[in-house]
């Protein structure tokens, strides 16, 4: 089928952040799939930072005046020589005055310091574009909540967390404060993590490292994350576990950074860290979205070797194979899941149903459907749409009609996929009137046809020689944003296949009022197709029109002045 290009506004995907402590990542049914490519960036940290000195607050960084005296930077004592170059750094505790950490941070906040320049630039290739366009990815942090929406993080909120913390606070109290800060601001959480490190609150404190790793991951500072993993073992005596890597993999999964997710997973295995259910669920969901088959197969094999039971991983594997047309492997994965003794969930039943419906194996599909009902699952509109697709592929439109009619009795309303599947089914069965009926129902319900529907309808119009309706379909294609060259390509292929190439030019002129001849690409396609189909008069007509711009139509012969 010809590639239909529809002009749509493109932009960076919305990035949403969720709590890692929630349930494992779920993989949704993906019958279409799409992917985007993002290149990992390096360290975005700026040189400047706020410091608290024995005389008050100062700022050290590029373009700012440096303090020549000793100062405290994130709990580290530093000094500069006369040229302003730092010559020594040593760890120290906070000043001995009876002032809490929260009061010092409040002072820093009130002066407007301790704010890093926003980084995290991502590259994303626009759909249909040829250049990489730079975008700033929506980050979680100050000014946004955990879902990427604008919110206000008040200094009072942070002060309330820090006011109860001092050097005498227990590790549990510090961890509780770190959890709350991580929900408010990654930057504040990491500053407090540094303070905990200086004051000996991180020895054996794996939970604090897990929170810090996830905060660093949202900043995409992968180099710092790797250093922190080493420090976690070497300096604090913590044992690496799945949670240490899950925070990193989680962010990669949300932002579709499959290369980085794969790197962390391999590092996890190299250090003999056992993955858990969340690890497998996040990775398989990511690979399903980005279409990384080899990585998914590797992860799936490791999952089975580790005796991890993740139903969503089987669903992702089945979906990937089905999307690539590897139906035998899809069915093998279904049998493997049955032999492993896993109980399907709703999503897994749907992907199983889709495997057989995509092949037109409706006897097997009906058995899957009956098993769903026997297990107590209520059929949703996705199940009905999948069945309609299957009956359409097997050209059994009588049963497809029954399924469509049964939607109402099930308390469900047909959606755009329902109508589109009916159009495709009747088109495949070459039942023109019914296909046209559901095409108009699709529009009447406020939905738009997709590229496959347009191609199906154009082929039906060519076979049944309905030129009047052809103008209606072409107008719908133009309203949907189809380029003229795509419309011409569809038309010449459909009408050329049934030997009616001489009908193409009048249809195009009736719809586009001769403007089609102003498009160089469309004219080139038309001339080439006319010559290949031995319709030479139309080919010469277009060439002459392009040359002179003057047209005179006389009966069925084109005469050029």
Automatic annotation (TrEMBL):
Family: Belongs to the PPR family. P subfamily.
GO biological process: chloroplast-nucleus signaling pathway; mitochondria-nucleus signaling pathway
GO CC terms of this entry: chloroplast
SUPFAM superfamilies linked to this entry: HCP-like
Pfam families: PPR, PPR_2, PPR_3
Keywords linked to the UniProt accession: Repeat, Transit peptide
Highest taxon of source: Eukaryota
UniProt-recorded name of the protein: Pentatricopeptide repeat-containing protein
PPR repeat residues: 310-344, 345-379, 380-414, 415-449, 450-484
Organism: Miscanthus lutarioriparius
């Amino acid at each position: 089928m010809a590639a239909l290009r529809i002009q749509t506004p493109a932009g960076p995907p919305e990035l949403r952040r969720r709590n890692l402590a929630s349930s494992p990542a779920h993989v949704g049914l993906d019958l279409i799939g799409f992917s985007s490519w993002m290149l990992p960036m390096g360290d975005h940290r700026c040189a400047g930072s706020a410091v608290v000195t024995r005389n008050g607050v100062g700022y050290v960084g590029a373009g700012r005046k440096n303090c020549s005296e000793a100062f405290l930077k994130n709990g580290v004592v530093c000094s500069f020589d006369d040229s302003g170059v730092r010559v020594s750094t040593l760890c120290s505790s906070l000043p001995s005055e009876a002032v809490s950490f929260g009061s010092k941070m409040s002072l820093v906040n009130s002066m407007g310091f301790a704010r890093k320049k926003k980084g995290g630039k991502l590259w994303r290739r626009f759909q249909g574009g040829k250049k990489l366009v730079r975008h700033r990815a929506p980050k979680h942090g100050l000014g946004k909540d955990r879902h990427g929406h604008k919110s206000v993080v008040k200094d009072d909120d942070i002060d309330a967390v820090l006011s109860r913390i001092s050097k005498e606070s227990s590790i549990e109290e510090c961890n509780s404060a770190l959890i709350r800060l991580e929900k408010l601001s990654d930057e504040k959480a990491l500053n407090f993590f540094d303070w905990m490190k200086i004051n000996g609150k991180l020895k054996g404190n794996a939970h604090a490292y897990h929170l810090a790793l996830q905060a660093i991951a949202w900043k995409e500072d992968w180099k710092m994350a790797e250093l922190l993993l080493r420090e976690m073992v070497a300096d604090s005596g913590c044992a690496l576990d799945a949670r240490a890597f899950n925070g990193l993999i989680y962010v990669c999964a949300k932002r579709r950074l499959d290369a980085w997710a794969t790197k962390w997973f391999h590092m996890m295995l190299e250090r003999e860290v056992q993955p858990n259910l969340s690890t497998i669920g996040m990775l398989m969901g990511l690979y399903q979205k980005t279409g990384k088959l080899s990585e998914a197969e590797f992860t799936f094999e490791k999952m089975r070797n580790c005796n991890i039971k993740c139903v969503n991983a089987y669903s992702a594997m089945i979906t990937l194979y089905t999307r690539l047309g590897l139906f035998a492997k899809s069915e093998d994965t279904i049998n493997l899941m049955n032999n492993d003794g896993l109980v399907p969930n709703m999503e897994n039943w749907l992907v199983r149903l889709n495997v057989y419906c995509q092949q037109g194996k409706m006897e097997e599909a009906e058995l899957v459907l009956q098993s769903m009902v026997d297990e107590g699952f209520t059929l949703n509109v996705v199940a009905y749409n999948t069945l309609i697709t299957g009956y359409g592929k097997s050209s059994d439109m009588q049963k497809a009609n029954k399924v469509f009619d049964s939607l109402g009795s099930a308390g469900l309303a047909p959606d755009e996929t329902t109508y589109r599947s009916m159009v495709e089914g009747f088109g495949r069965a070459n039942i023109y009137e019914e296909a046209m009926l559901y095409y108009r129902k699709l529009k009447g319900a406020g939905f738009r046809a997709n590229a496959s529907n347009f191609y199906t309808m154009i082929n039906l119009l060519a076979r049944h020689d309905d030129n009047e309706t052809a103008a209606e379909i072409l107008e719908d294609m133009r309203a949907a944003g189809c380029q003229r060259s795509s419309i011409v390509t569809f038309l010449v292929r459909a009408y050329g296949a049934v030997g009616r190439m001489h009908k193409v030019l009048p249809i195009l002129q009736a719809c586009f009022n001769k403007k089609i001849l102003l498009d160089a690409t469309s004219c080139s396609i038309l001339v080439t197709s006319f010559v290949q189909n031995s319709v030479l008069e139309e080919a010469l007509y277009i060439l002459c029109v392009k040359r002179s711009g003057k047209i005179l139509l006389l009966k069925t012969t084109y005469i050029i002045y």
